[in-house]
Amino acid sequence: MARKSKTPTKLFVLDTNVLLHDPTCLYRFQEHDILLPMATLEELDHNKKGMSEVARNARQATRFIDEIVSRCELDIADGAPLSDHSHNAATGKLYLQTQPLPANAPIFMSDSKVDNQILSLVAHLKTLHPSRPVILVSKDINMRIKARALGIPAEDYFNDKVLEDTDLLYSGVRELPADFWDTHGKGMESWQQDGRSYYRVTGPLVPALLVNEFLFQEGAQPIYCVVREIAGNTALLTTVKDYTHQKSAVWGIMARNREQNFALSMLMDPEIDFVTLLGQAGTGKTLLTLAAGLTQTLEHKLYSEIIMTRVTVPVGEDIGFLPGTEEEKMTPWMGALEDNLDVLNKTDEEAGEWGRAATQDLIRSRIKVKSLNFMRGRTFINKFLIIDEAQNLTPKQMKTLITRAGPGTKVVCLGNIAQIDTPYLTEGSSGLTYVVDRFKGWPHSGHVTLARGERSRLADQAASIL
Description:
By secondary structure, the chain is an alpha/beta fold. It is built from 14 helices and 18 strands. The strands form 3 sheets. The protein has a 6-stranded mixed β-sheet. α8 crosses α10 and α12 crosses α13. The chain is globular, with a radius of gyration of 27 Å.
């Protein structure tokens, strides 16, 4: 089934869920060989029907396999080279299981279960190739546990991970060292413009900074600023508007902490087209975003309307046979929107009951709730697009959504990577982690990780002790 090689390249046996998660995984194993069990091919066949992301991936994986195998001039048992199809990124071979397991092969548990058939095959390959590492690759944790219990090497599929450790994820906020102005103040230029202070600084920390990264220094004279430009060892810093005072409230909402102030600064900046906000429950992600969206849509007339969408878990499935329009079907998923609109509507205390009711009708006429399922092919022009629960999106789905943005559209992604509900997505491979990492440093994007919960003292205590 697999050739013996002089070089100790590995033989990876792929579980079906790896192909369903990333069809391009066939080209991601460099010089090593891949083997697909017959059970994996059968499961691909079972999953190919439908319009879901899994079905699309199953069809794409099958097309890749057909392309590789159909061009193979040798006997398929000798393996099909991958180099022609991957521009030499993968130089190994693809093998398919061409024979049933022999009678003397190890059979684990009941072989009616697909997982056990694959485990039996890997164990048989280990005996066939004692000098070569044979490794099972699966996204299924239980499958990997079973393999280890039976003494079979097993690994997760790592290629889709943006970061191994999400603690390293860019937070968008950096505390300046105490000696920052001593080490960077030499030859510093500073001036006032449009009510803000500008500082052009040079020093050793500058190359590590990113455009639109927020900097702060607490103490007797606290300073909060944002990096506007970087050129070599020189950076241009601008002070951030203070949204903690009533006079600069956004739709009646004031920032309650430093990170919320930074978030509002980004949300209210028309030069920033793409904003990502991370944070646990109760940090104010949705409230701040809606307040900024309403102010810029209804008062500043920057955007024509707010479009809010969120992942209906399970992702990409049909939103069902509930009666009503797309908006009415999405209502059960939009409790967070309703709760936040109630808060925003109460901020106008002078309007009275009638005034608030009129405002509520106006707000609702400008907020559209859309399902992710019908986003392909659309273009949003001059819209304020909010993607809630973005941690449940894969990088591919995230790309599909963000590329919907036309001229004048601002996209805001909200999420908490500790609350992922989608199977096979982890904190490291979530689409939200992916865009935070890829967009950092772009002059028209910004990111802030909100650290402190502001919902209530009860919610904060529950978050810390439970």
